[in-house]
Amino acid sequence: SSYLAVANQRNATDFTFETDSVVYRWNGTAFVSFQLIPTHGATDWEWFSQDGNDYLVLANSGGANSDVDSALYQWNGCHF
After folding, report:
1. Per-residue model confidence as pLDDT tens digits over 36-45
2. Are 38 and 53 in contact (CB under 8 A)?
């Protein structure tokens, strides 16, 4: 399968940095929502593979007054 990870920086309702980013999966016709991942001001996703394992790295950012961590997710065969 093919996947597309989209980093959502702000919540569309109240414009806070706390929002879900989405991993989409190609169903043969279109990308459909596959997995929601809680993020804080997400700015970028990067995929890489090492030793036969697939990973997504998330860059979080919360503005000038926020101390937030970025995250590493490993594919477990079903989701990240």
Report:
1. 999 988 999 9
2. no
CA pair distance 62, 65, nearest whole angstrom: 7
CA angle 35, 40, 8 (to 5 degrees): 55
Contact residues for 37 (Cβ-Cβ < 8 A; gap 6+) = 20, 21, 22, 23, 58, 73, 80
Q: What is the pTM of this model?
A: 0.85
